[in-house]
């Protein structure tokens, strides 16, 4: 073997070992589903006082309700071409301050499509008030 190959062998061995360890670390990392399983489109959500896709909140149509990874629900709403999501979670589950809340629940909103469209402030207030009323009625 040439002296150059002998000199490069330790560095090559270290590179192979590092690459192997990186691959093993990636394979050992637990994976989460990319999206949570969808709630049945026709099934109401008890925590939201029976809210179901097709219902209306302050004139906005509920197009989907899906569970979130932190135990809440995403409520997708649409009017005309504007669509956005309200997320309902237990108060204190997330570290940031919610824009709307009651003693038990936090409401967040966003994901407006098409991108760049502003969600009307009046719609946010009216929908959040209706969601909070539904949550209060569903409390034991």
Describe this structure in words.
By secondary structure, the protein is of the alpha+beta class. It folds into two domains: 1-31; 46-138. The protein is 31% helix and 26% strand. The chain has a six-stranded antiparallel sheet. A hairpin with a 2-residue loop joins strand 1 and strand 2. The relative contact order is 0.13.
Helix content: 25-40%
C-alpha end-to-end distance? 79 Å
What's the helix-strand series?
Answer: HEEEEEEH
Q: So what's the overall shape?
A: elongated
SSE layout and pairing:
Blueprint lengths: L2 H26 L27 E2 L2 E8 L5 E7 L2 E9 L9 E2 L3 E9 L7 H18 L2
Antiparallel strand pairs: 1-2, 2-3, 3-4, 4-6, 5-6
Summarize the structure.
The protein is α+β, with helices and mostly antiparallel strands and 140 residues long.
Annotation keywords:
2 domains; elongated; 140 residues; 2 helices; alpha+beta; 26% strand; single chain
């Amino acid at each position: 073997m040439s002296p150059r190959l002998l000199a490069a062998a330790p560095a090559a061995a270290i590179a192979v070992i590092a690459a192997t360890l990186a691959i093993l670390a990636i394979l050992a990392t637990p994976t989460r589903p990319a999206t949570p399983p969808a709630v049945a489109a026709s099934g109401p959500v008890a925590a939201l006082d029976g809210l179901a896709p097709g219902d209306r909140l302050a004139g906005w149509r509920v197009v989907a309700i899906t569970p979130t990874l932190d135990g809440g629900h995403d409520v997708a709403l649409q009017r005309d071409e504007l669509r956005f999501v309200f997320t309902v979670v237990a108060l204190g589950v997330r570290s940031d301050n919610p824009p709307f809340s009651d003693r038990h629940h936090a409401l967040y909103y966003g994901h407006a499509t098409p991108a760049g469209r502003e969600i009307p402030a009046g719609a946010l207030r009216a929908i959040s008030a209706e969601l909070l009323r539904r949550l209060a009625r569903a409390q034991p």
